[in-house]
Input
Amino acid sequence: MRSDRNAADLLDAQADRLAVTLEFFGLPAPTAGDSRDRTLDALDVLVPRVHANRNDSELWLLFSALSGAFPYDRDLVHAIQFRDGHSLDDFADWIIAASAISANAGGSTVLPMRIVSDLTFVDVSSCARFNRQTGIQRVERETLPLWQRDHGDEMQLVAWSDRDGVYRSLREKELRRVIAWGTHNELDDDESTEGLEFLVPWNTTIVLPEVPNHDQSGRLRAIARHTGCVATVIGYDMIPMMSPEMLPHAMGTDFLEYLGVVKYAAVIAGISQSATDEFRGFFQAVTNEDPGNAAIVACELPTAVPERELGVSSPDSDETIILCVGSHEPRKNHGTVLHAAELLWREGHEFQLWFFGGGGWGTDFDVLAQKLKKKGRKVELRKSVSDSILWDAYRRASFTVFPSLHEGFGLPVAESLAFGTPAITTNYGSTREIGERGGCLLVDPRSDDDVLGAIRQLLTDPAELARLSTEARAIPMRTWDEYAADLWKVLVDDVV
Amino acid sequence: MPTNVPADLSAEERVAQLEARIREYHRTELSRWADSVAETQLHFEKLEAVKQTVSWRITAPLRAIRRSQLER
Output
C-alpha cells in the first residue's frame, strides 16, 4: 500500500485521533492552532486523566491514539510502569517519545479513527487479504457467511493494516473474499484506502478465528491482558509446540507469540476433543506462574459438506482411484503413501493415485512423485483446485488416505466420509475421534506396513469397502449451521 | 536547577514562561516524532519496492537455502 504520507499528514491524523478520543470521553476537542497545538491541548487533558485514574484501558487508548498504532504488550507494560512510578510532567514528556516506538514499528495510520464498543470484533485479516484456502480459511469461509446472516448487526469484521499496526475495516473485495468465497475467487488485490477506518475496540469481545502473526500477536496480547476487551479464540492445534519438527522454523516463532495472546484469552474453542486437550495441557503448564481464567471447551468442527455438493458423479473410468488430500509437508506423511503405492503397483494392483493439495515444503515428495510418473505409474498431482473439483474427486475416489502424523481435526477425513467414501487414517488424536464413528480403517501412520496393509485391504476386498461406505453414509453429520451457532454461543454469547 | 528565566519576574510570570518553553519543546518533539515515523515509513516502502523487482524474485531461492542453512 503506497501511503504518500508525510510528516504534516501524520500530525494532522494524530490531532484528529486525539480529538476523537476526547469526544469519546464526552470532553470537548480543541480546535485552535495547528495540528501540533491541537495535539498538545488534547494531551493537556488526557495525560493528567490517565495519570490520575490509573486505568490501563484508557492508557492503552491514549497510546494508540497518539501513535496511530496499537502498542505492543512490552511497550504498554513500560507505559504502565512509567505512569505509576513517575510524576505527571515526566510521564507527559515520556509518552510522546515512547509513542513513536509503536508508530515506527507498525506504521502510524492516517485512516480516520473510530472507537467501537457495541460490536464484537472478528479478526479475519488473513482470510480477507489473501486467496489462500487451507483448513483455517475453510473454517472461516464456511462460518463467517452464517455469522453475517445471523449476527451481521452485532459484529464488525476487521483486518490488520498493511504493516500490522492497527485494526481497520474491510475493503469490498476483502469482504467478498470472506463471506462470498466460491463466487468471487481469485480476486485482484485492491490497495485503495478510500472509505477505510482505523477501528479501536473498546470493552468488547475480539474473536480470533485465525492465528495472528508475530507482530499482530504482540499487540493483541496487550489488548487481551490490559484492556477491558476480551479475546476469544478458535483453538486449532498445538502442533508448533508439540511437533515442532514438522513445521517451518518461522511458524514456531509466530505461534509462540500467539500463545502469549491465548494465555490471556477468555475462551478457547478447540476444534476437536484432541485439540482441546492440547490447549488445556498448555494452560496447566503455565498456570503455575499466572493462573488463567480461560474457559477451554470443545466446539467440534462439522463433518458435513454443503448439501448442494452431495450429488453423484459418473466415473469416467472403471479404474480404482485413491485420493490423498493435503499440502506436501512432512506432517502429512505423503512419502509413506507413495512408498505403499509403489509396492502395490509392483504387486500388480491397478489403481490411480491422486494428490490434491497446495504447495509444501521440507520433503522430497515432488521428486519422488515425478520419478514414479516417469516409470508410468498413475500419479496425478493437483496443486490448486476449486471446491467443486475437490468435491468431485471425493465422489469419484474409491477411498481416501490421510495418514497424517499430527492434526487438529482432519477435515479431509470428515469430508471424505460425508461423501460416503471410506478413509484410511491415523489411529490417534483427532482423526481417531472421527474414524471411530465408522467408515474408516485406522492405522499407525509411522508404520509403513500398517499403511500398506490397509490400502491393500481396500484394493482387494470390495465387501469391506462397501461395508465401510455404508457405515460412512450412516454417520450423523454435524452441519456448518450447527457449528456456526455453537461457536457464536461459546465465543460471544457466553462471554457476555 | 538553573532556568534562565529572568529573576525579576513574579512567580506566576516565571511559571508562565517556563510553560511556554515546555510547550515549544513539545511542539518540536512532535515534529521530530512525525519526521521519524515518516522516514521509517519511507524506508519500509523502499524495501517493499525492492521486493517487487525481478532480481529479488530471482534470488529468492538462494536466500531461502541460506536461511535454512543458518537455522540448522
User: Anything to note?
Assistant: Helices of chain B lie at 11-51, 54-58, 60-71. Chain B touches chain A through 18 residues (CB under 8 Å). Residues 11-71 of chain B form one domain. The first helix of chain B runs from residue 11 to 51.
